[in-house]
Design brief:
- The chain starts with a strand and ends in an 8-residue tail after the last helix.
- It has a six-stranded mixed β-sheet, sandwiched between helices.
- The chain has helices at about 10-20, 70-85, 100-115, 140-150, 170-190; strands spanning about 1-5, 40-45, 50-55, 90-95, 120-125, 155-160.
- Strand 2 (about 40-45) and strand 3 form a beta hairpin.
- It has about 200 residues and is of the alpha/beta class.
- The longest helix has 21 residues, at about 170-190.
- Helix 2 (about 70-85) crosses helix 3.
- It is built from five helices and six strands.
- About 35% of the residues lie in helices and about 20% in strands.
């Protein structure tokens, strides 16, 4: 069980679609959540089977489809249910690469309190980096110290674009999508615990 979580509009559903290699999760062009509950997607990566969980976005405020407090409660209940079942093998904190690192701390703390003292590995995926130069991974190099300063520590990361492909896309975007797929699959393979963690 690999659980994707983060703010509304960061591209969790688009990341699912990138990993799956096709559009299976509903996406939204605006900052409001299109995922109002959790949804599971089974995928095979390098011969290993994983279940990816898309979750409702945090921080929509009271006007969103899933108010922030309700999203946090639902996430805690959902994780509790997984813990009683198969357990959780990896948590992926999805963030918009253009977001200020200090602002990411609130959702990280909300989530950390929901999982308690769990030993589940937490990795970070920065999205929306299609225009980041010279390479998308430079986002991590520029932000890792600031993230650590705010108490956010990650054993692994991926810097990606989840923009959908199309006939009119540039060679650069095709290469960045391919690199994003490789990097996020490697992140899952390298950091997904072989033994599920349960609280």
């Amino acid at each position: 069980n690999v659980v994707l979580w983060g703010e509304s509009g960061v591209g969790k559903s688009s990341l699912i679609n990138l990993i799956m290699g096709r559009d299976v999760a509903e996406t939204s062009p605006d900052a409001l959540s299109c995922t109002i509950t959790h949804a599971a997607y089974d995928v095979t990566i390098s011969g290993q089977c994983f279940r990816l969980w898309d979750t409702a976005g945090l921080n929509e405020g009271s006007e969103g489809r899933v108010p922030a407090a309700a999203a946090a409660r639902r996430l805690a209940l959902f994780l509790g249910g997984l813990n009683k079942g198969d357990g959780v093998h990896l948590l992926m904190y999805c963030v918009r690469g253009t977001r200020a690192t200090k602002a990411l701390r609130t959702n990280y703390q909300t989530f950390s309190s929901a999982i308690g003292d769990s030993k589940v590995p937490i990795v970070i995926v920065a999205t929306c980096l299609e225009d980041w130069r010279p390479v998308m991974a430079e986002w991590w190099n520029q932000n890792k110290d600031q993230l650590a300063k705010y108490g956010m520590h990650f054993p692994g990361y991926a810097c990606v674009t989840t923009l959908p492909g199309g006939r009119a896309e540039s060679q650069d975007l095709r290469q960045r999508r391919a690199q994003s797929y490789e990097d996020v699959c490697k992140l899952i393979l390298d950091h997904c615990s072989q033994v599920p963690h349960k609280s």
